[in-house]
Amino acid sequence: MNSIEENLKEIQNTIPEKVTLVAVSKTKPVSDLMEAYQAGQRVFGENKIQEMTQKWEELPKDIIWHMIGHVQTNKVKYMAPYVDTIHAVDSLKLLKEINKQAAKNDRIINCFLQIKIAKEDSKFGLSETDAIALLNSEEIKSLANVKIKGLMGMATFTDNTEQIIKEFKKIQSLYNQLTVDNPEFKILSIGMSGDYKLAIDCGSTMVRIGSSIFGARNYSH
Ligand SMILES: *Cc1c(COP(=O)(O)O)cnc(C)c1O
User: Which N-terminal stretch is annotated as signal sequence (predicted)?
Assistant: First the structure.
């Protein structure tokens, strides 16, 4: 097996310079994150707030932390002091809480709206119509401590390339439509280990890659 550093270099070499790599380090020990850090990686993604906060406490403070998992409103306060970007915003209620906690910490937190593109029911996210309605709502204008900077989506977990491309094209088209009126909209967060090349072909500007960097995850402990 290749080292974390070799994996990172290999991925960095295959993605265009304008695409940001989020190293998804969920379930991995801080020693693995440190290895990636020493290889130059600064943007890390986690999906559990408690785990991310523990790692934030232990690791160098110039790491840029992205919360990529589903967020419960009552836990936003734990990451508000340091989180850079929250990928899976799917309601006005959550956005308001992020704004409130960001304000308490005198910060601005970047947010992406999660769009439901997969066929599976289990995936969270907004429909296109609900995302547009949310962005056009009066209430959103008063939220001074959040910046909605783009969209995030997860394709169906399948070998069917056509299906994945269809889903990525759907979110790409919504993204292109929204950038017209929204100069702050700059990021399309699509693509994981199995599908990031397809995602880049569909306009991804940010890929979230875990297992191809750190190896397969072991959830048994
Ligand atoms: C775990 C996870 C990833 C990374 O998945 P890999 O297949 O290991 O690259 C990306 N995005 C989200 C939202 C995740 O939860």
Answer: none
